[in-house]
Amino acid sequence: MQDRRGDEGDEQHPRCGPCTRLNRECDWDHRWNFNDATTTTQGKYSNISTAGNAVWDPTVRQGHGSGSLPGELDALPEFATLTNDEDRETKARTSRPGTYGVVVTPESFYDLPEYAAHSPQESRRMSGASSSSARGARGSGRPGLGRSNTASDPTVVVLDKFEDASPVSTGPLSAATESRRSSFPEALGQLSITTPPYNASISTGPHTPQVRSDDHLIAHFRRYIVPRLAQPQQESIPGFPSQGSTRDVLEFEATRFPPLHHAMCAISALNLSHNGQSSLEEALQHYHQALAASATPRSSPPDLFSDGSFLRHFLLLVYDICIPMQSDDGGTALWAVHLNQLTRIAIERRDSPGNERYAYTLWSICELDVYACLLGSGNCDFLRTMMSHNMIPPFEKTIPGLSTTQTPNASAFLPSEANIFPSILHLSQGILLRTAKLAQTAQTFRHEHTSSKGSIAPATWARWQSTAAQLQSELHTFWQQSYPSHILGPVTTEPNTSLLPERVASVFTTTTLLYHAAILYARTSLFPTQRTLPSYAQNSLSTDSEARVRSILALTATQPPSNRKSVFPLFIAGVVSLEPESKRRALELVRGFEGSGIGQNTYRTGRLLEAEARGEG
């Protein structure tokens, strides 16, 4: 006969493992222990600072007293009964920092998609059941949906379910998000490219300088990043600030639009991470803050297309170009999503009063769009949209302004530039637009080749070759007609750029490099096997191509390492040339540009060129 006395009426609870091991009574409740790890963390990471922080700086905590803001009363119920973060934040502002706490546990995240995809369903079920059982056993009620508090401390709330408060994305972001998830930590999968509403009126007052822990990032951005974003650089002349226009504009807008500040810090931290002066985690943190910045529903739609928002997306575009992400089949690279957002912003700003203040930034985006298409990673949609809406900036607007306070009728040129710069800019704009047509044609031909599955009709080959010859002719004709021979001399001679003002010489050299590279590209890279097809003037074309290769090598040898536009012509020259010495020199010059950009794309270009030289490309 079984003894059932232990099953009935003794009202004894089992003890958990730790209490059994320590021979202690189990009180069926959580005991949270909050330790200040500030000292340990600062010992491990030299860039961590608590100065001025209301929670972690003891001197600030003493100055805050009770922590209540002047005139602010606590009219809310007990902390444990509040059901949303907004109410908890409001109540916390009326008390000393550290009074209340919100705790998340591993179970809090189980329902998030990025965790659900990697958590075994059975273990999630068992853990959830175990957690619910324990909470039910200790008898603590649930004051709000998905939340619980400890009976021993009503100032601490434990979240049963973490609710993501980041903005909801729409449009092509979902594909880009999945793409990034596949090649980066899952936490980045929740980033949103959608511009959050922002109330500009909050920051319209005088700016009060603050000591920030990321001042070193802004200093690096000012000194190193800006000269690589705004080209050509302005020569130093008394009365004209050198590099000041773009730098001052960005820093001024960042004081009014905090997400732009985070974008500046993100791209600066990314660059510093390459030499160990920062970390990729710091760059990603600022990147996330630039996208999911705090917002207010009182914002008006024009805030979405403000100067700060426009410049923020431009910097994030450059950031994602510097960290190329592999996209799944049918997916969208994240930099392309930024480009789509910039297209939308540019169109909306077109209808705003006055001219586009940052037309040179629009032109920089057009250049990036063209280079991406040449390399098979884009389709020139941004430039195509600018042209279809008649938004191509006038050529004098495609360079950074002389100052931040230019009047509408002020000259865009220095006195020494006025006679030559307009002609050079006209030449530069025309060559880029014709190169864009070349890139779009190459994309069309590649698509036709893929669709044909290798079965190309003779008529198609003939059409492709005829189109390639026509595009070369258009480039050559425009160059001959627009070349400023009245200043530079006959087009057949090598111009003496040393006689040109600094900015003019920079633009002319870049334009010449792109012209030679575009001709070589049209001869060799418009469609597969183009280089192997015989031509009626094969010998003369080969001689001319090698001459253009030598011109590219000679011109890039004179360029400063910060001129990122020299790398693509060098790459084309190294691929096209049949002379081993020219290939070697092209690779040597590409290596000379490594380490002087924002990201590491030049390094990747050098590795591609090495592979091509070994016959692996």
Distance between the termini: 84 Å
The number of E-state strands comes to 3
Taking Cα atoms only, what radius of gyration do you get, to the nearest Å? 31 Å
Tally of contiguous helical segments? 23
SSE order:
HHHHEHHEEHHHHHHHHHHHHHHHHH
**Biggest sheet strand line-up:** 1-3-2
SSE class: mainly alpha
Low-confidence stretches: 1-7, 64-71, 117-151, 165-211, 235-244, 294-302, 326-331
Global mean pLDDT:
75
How is the topology of this model organized?
Layout: H1 17-22, H2 38-44, H3 58-64, H4 85-92, E1 101-104, H5 113-116, H6 121-138, E2 147-150, E3 153-159, H7 173-183, H8 215-229, H9 244-256, H10 258-273, H11 280-291, H12 307-322, H13 334-350, H14 359-374, H15 381-388, H16 421-452, H17 458-482, H18 485-488, H19 502-524, H20 538-556, H21 567-576, H22 580-593, H23 601-613
Parallel strand pairs: 1-3
Antiparallel strand pairs: 2-3
Helix pairs in contact: 8-10, 9-10, 10-11, 10-12, 12-13, 14-16, 16-17, 16-19, 17-19, 19-20, 19-21, 20-21, 20-22, 21-22, 21-23, 22-23
Give a verbal description of the structure.
- With 617 residues, the chain is mainly α.
- Among the domains are: 42-159, no CATH class; 168-205 and 212-406, no CATH class.
- It contains 23 helices and three strands.
- It has helices at 17-22, 38-44, 58-64, 85-92, 113-116, 121-138, 173-183, 215-229, 244-256, 258-273, 280-291, 307-322, 334-350, 359-374, 381-388, 421-452, 458-482, 485-488, 502-524, 538-556, 567-576, 580-593, 601-613; strands at 101-104, 147-150, 153-159.
- Strands 1-3-2 form a three-stranded mixed β-sheet, with no helix packed on it.
- Strand 2 and strand 3 form a beta hairpin.
- Mean pLDDT is 75; it is low at 1-7, 64-71, 117-151, 165-211, 235-244, 294-302 and 326-331.
